[in-house]
Design brief:
Elements (H helix, E strand, L loop, with lengths): L20 E9 L3 H11 L2 H9 L8 E6 L1 H7 L14 E3 L2 E3 L6 E7 L2 H15 L3 E10 L19 H8 L12 E10 L1 H6 L2 H8 L19 H4 L2 E3 L2 E3 L2 E2 L2 E5 L4 E10 L3 H11 L14 E3 L3 E5 L2 H6 L4
Antiparallel strand pairs: 1-5, 1-6, 2-5, 3-4, 7-12, 7-13, 7-14, 8-9, 10-12, 11-12
Helix pairs in contact: 2-4
Bound molecules: protoporphyrin IX containing FE (HEM).
The site of protoporphyrin IX containing FE (HEM) has 27 residues, from strand 7, helix 8, strand 12 and helix 9.
Length: 316
């Protein structure tokens, strides 16, 4: 339900503007109370570090969102726990599976230039020191006109403005965590030779949009298995959206071509429903053919406290 945003604690920079560069970092917590205390103290430093690094290039749009896994929340902060926070749920099987991989802390660092992301990541990870082990780090870049690695414009149907806030920021449904959000991430690797061997028309039927002009295919020709069909959800006649900021990444010399998926919502449920539709199919078997050319190699679900709660967590 739409909510009145004026009384909501300031969310973290979930709805920040589109930027050119990103670093996604996933880390696991080291065992022991001393390490937990270090991470709690760090929570209070995050905003100041973003300000210090960001002020050096005021036009650079530097931002950082921090999230915590269910088990990290219990270890670090205990009760109360965000109502919908749980371990990443896997979907699918065999080759086509949304896998869960280790990860307690997520950093989503965005800016218009990589040096800002790099400097902030260095400062944030440096302060965490031996309290965490980074298990995945991906530097992503904006690819021409907001295109994904598979060549289609990505992010077109994202909600914007007030609608983006309504779909991503927790309201009265979880009073202790108003202003928070949930974020789900997956690192995908693509079989670009296979994908590029398809005709543009075949690719368009897989995505559900035209490649060059990014227009949705007509309902009469758009397959129910298309990516855009399977990720469109309706509840009581109203579309339920999530906010994505996927970025391409890769190492052409090593044959690595990837998309880092990141989706924010005020409950994990719609993102999980999309995953089920993509990996299992709607109905089962009618799965997302993009997955014949894309393999999820990581998966994590995190809670994003409001900016004010993040600072207060240091005192828990
Ligand atoms: C739409 C790419 C994974 C959710 C799109 C579009 C592209 C795209 C090109 C069409 C333009 C747009 O509206 O953004 C990809 C790639 C992925 C990926 C390359 C990784 C291989 C996912 C996952 C989810 C998701 C894992 C959710 C769990 C959505 C949603 C839309 C969308 C909600 C908008 C659908 C609509 O309203 O028409 N994606 N996507 N995507 N994708 Fe993905």
């Amino acid at each position: 339900m739409p909510q009145d945003t004026k009384d909501v604690p300031e969310p973290q920079a979930i709805c920040s503007p589109i930027t050119r560069s990103v670093i996604y970092i996933v880390a696991t917590l080291a065992a022991g109370e001393a390490h937990a205390a270090k991470v709690r103290a760090w929570c209070e430093d995050v905003a100041a570090l973003v300000r210090s690094v960001g002020k050096r290039v005021p036009s650079g749009n530097l931002s950082c969102v921090c999230g915590f896994s269910a088990s990290a929340w219990d270890t670090l902060f205990g009760a109360p726990r965000p109502a919908q926070l749980h371990a990443f749920r896997e979907f699918g099987e065999g080759e086509r599976r949304a896998v869960a991989t280790p990860g307690d802390l997520l950093l989503h660092i965005r800016a218009d230039q990589m040096d800002l992301c790099f400097e902030l990541a260095t400062q944030l990870v440096g302060r965490l020191g031996d309290a965490v082990t980074v298990v995945d780090e991906v530097q992503g870049f904006r690819y021409f006109d907001l295109r994904s690695m598979v060549g289609f414009v990505d992010g077109t149907e994202n909600p914007t403005g007030r609608e983006a806030v309504d779909f991503t920021v927790i309201g009265d449904e979880d009073p202790a965590f108003v202003g928070g959000s949930y974020v789900l991430v997956q690192k995908y690797l693509h079989d670009m030779s296979g994908w590029n061997a398809l005709s543009v028309e075949e690719q368009e039927r897989i995505i559900g949009r035209t490649k060059l002009s990014d227009i949705e295919l007509d309902e009469a020709v758009k397959p129910t298995s298309s990516h855009s069909a399977l990720t469109t959800l309706e509840e009581n006649g109203r579309e339920i959206k999530i906010l994505r900021d996927n970025m391409p990444f890769g190492r052409p010399g090593m044959g690595e071509f990837g998309t880092y998926f990141i989706g924010y919502a005020r409950s994990p449920a719609p993102i999980e429903q999309m995953l089920e539709n993509m990996f299992v199919g709607r109905p089962p078997g009618n799965y997302d053919r993009l997955l014949d050319y894309s393999r999820a190699v990581t998966g994590g679900l995190f809670f994003v406290p409001s900016a004010s709660l993040l600072e207060q967590l240091a005192e828990r």
